[in-house]
Amino acid sequence: MARSPVVSIVGTGLQYPPHKLGPEFVPKLISNCYKENAAVLPANHPLWFQDNILTNTECNCLFKEYGIPLAQDAARQAMEDWGGNPMDITHVVAMTCTSTSSPGFDCTLCQRLGFSKHVRRTLLNGVTCAGSVAALRTAYDLLRGATQEGTPARALVIATETMTVYIRAWLETIAKESTPNLGPTLFGDGASAIVLSNGIGAKEDEREPIWNIRGAQSTLVDRPGCVGIRWIPTGRPEDHQVVLAIFIWTPHH
């Protein structure tokens, strides 16, 4: 089979936790401006009402208890959508901002999903809102490298967050320092996953490409405050080509 010139998305998955936290969990002044968030813990969980603020270690334990199962469900959805064998996953790119453990949650996830012990894992930690773009770009580069070697490659890209376990710490900071923080109203919990393929050695059970990724490039622009995404069509819709996403980010000085 001829080598594929592109990396393709061949499976997707998305998983939200079952509980909802409404505006009563944020200061009334701003609560009316935002919708409810998905949360891994129910509204009557002791966490919300205890006197002490959770440590990072305790928050990470909650991530392991609630976040990894979310990641597992999202990953399984993506792999079922793809249709391939878990043992054919060659790379895993995992992203989170709400787990601080080392080794990362990707180790446990790979074991639960039945991947090869030799699967190549990459953990992206603390890259915040740029994480989705960074994870996709990283997986793309890895699979393009495999294409140059002429070897089959399938990558699971997984992002998982349990932001709500930090809500007490956020609100404590707001109360003590009188520092505005919209984090409790903007961010909820959840996991999403995609499977990427370089097309080499595709088996009959594997899904045909949903979209093809033609390139991935990040650029730092020397203009303060310039943060955003521009979408530029790269082909006809019927060609299933992913549009080019340019993420423009300048660090704070």
Automatic annotation (TrEMBL):
Pfam families: Chal_sti_synt_N (PF00195). GO terms for molecular function: acyltransferase activity, transferring groups other than amino-acyl groups. The keyword Transferase applies. It comes from the Eukaryota. Residues 68-197 form the Chalcone/stilbene synthase N-terminal domain. PANTHER family: HYDROXYMETHYLGLUTARYL-COA SYNTHASE (PTHR11877), TYPE III POLYKETIDE SYNTHASE A (PTHR11877:SF46). This is Thiolase-like protein. It comes from Aspergillus caelatus.
